[in-house]
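hiii, so i know i said id send this last week but things got crazy w the move. better late than never?? heres the sequnce for the chain we talked about at the cafe, plus the structure i predicted for it. fair warning i was half asleep when i ran it
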Amino acid sequence: MINRKTPESQSSRKNVSRGSVTVKKTLDLRPGEEGSSESDESKTPSNKSKSLLSKSKSRRENQDVPRQDSTTNKSKRNLDDEQIKDSPFCAATSIVLATIVILMLSMFITMNLKPELFEENPETQISGKGQAFDRFKRDMEKVKANYPQQNPKSWSKLSGSIRRNMQGKAQQPLCFLFVFNSTAETTSNCLVKAVGTSIFFAISGGVDGGVFNIKSADLTKDPNEAKGELFSGIDSSLKQDSVVILEDISQLGASPVMALHGICDEGYLPDQAVKPVVLMTIADKGLGESLTTANEFEYGANLIRSLWEKDLGTDKVHPLISRIASVVIKVLPETFKGCPHL
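okay and structure toks below
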């Protein structure tokens, strides 16, 4: 018996197969998961976008890494440069170069400045006598020109002592001892007068007047009276003019010469800022000619010993030497006949 398939049976089979597929799909779905396929499909694009964002972010990070590395390298280079700049070697080199520059500038300034600029500052001088030493220095230039045979060290002694005195640095009166022999007696008298006049005008600041001159030979012959007369004459002159000249003290006896011990002492006129000046001359009458090779202080000291040590004794003559022979100047003969004018 042949079974023929009718159209109905075929359609029913198709329906059965479709239904089975539907059933299969329905069976695969769990309760509460209806429409999940649709949600999955809707979520798929968001996942793709997330993956794209993550990829782009990773690319940016990869691109930023070299920039950070370059920045780090630059900072390291800057640190290295700063370390090099701050290294002890560079600091020492800078100090050495700066020192060399300063020395060169100092040498240049010293070579181009005038020596007069290194003299004493007028501001340090006693009030009211700011130009005193300047005037004395100008006058002494004329004296030096008029007495060219004198030892240059003699001018340095005079100038240095007078400068200290006019700056208020002297502790006691200035007592200069000019030693001369028979060939230089005229020169000695003229030179001491010129120096005394320069000091007088510098201290007084005037243009008139002169230095009081005391001759030892004119004093009274009585030793005690001569001592008082000498001290009184020097004292009154110094209080009035601050400078006095005493000619040839070799003619004084032992008692009158001790008046000079009191005048040239630190305790004489202690309140005066500018100390008085005593210019003394002493003749070398052959007693000290064998000592001409010694220095000038020893020359003057030995001359004083030869004159008064026998009468005064060692205890008195040594203090006398320390006061009246602190600055000894040996006078050399000049060729002029009369005293040159300032």
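btw The chain has two domains: 72-113, 126-330. thought thatd interest u
miss u guys!!
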